[in-house]
Specification:
mainly alpha, 1 helix, 97% helix, rod-shaped
Length: 92
Amino acid sequence: MNMSSEATLKEVIGRLGRAIDALEHAAAARFEHDQDYAEADAELQRMNADRAKLAQELDHSEARAERLEDANKEVSRRLVTAMETIRAVLDR
């Protein structure tokens, strides 16, 4: 092996080492990116579950509000009837 071959071999080994370092760096960056994506996806799943739960609670609250409004109207109607009955009794 002459000096020129040795120098070329060292250059090739150096380039190979740098290429391996770059590949390791790219793999680490990809792994970190994938972890970030998985965490973001998990957070999105939690947010969608929370949204669904809140939508269901809102539906229940709206139904309850409607029932309370109906009950309020019924109470109001009965109070008017009672007041009219009392007036009629007092007017006799």
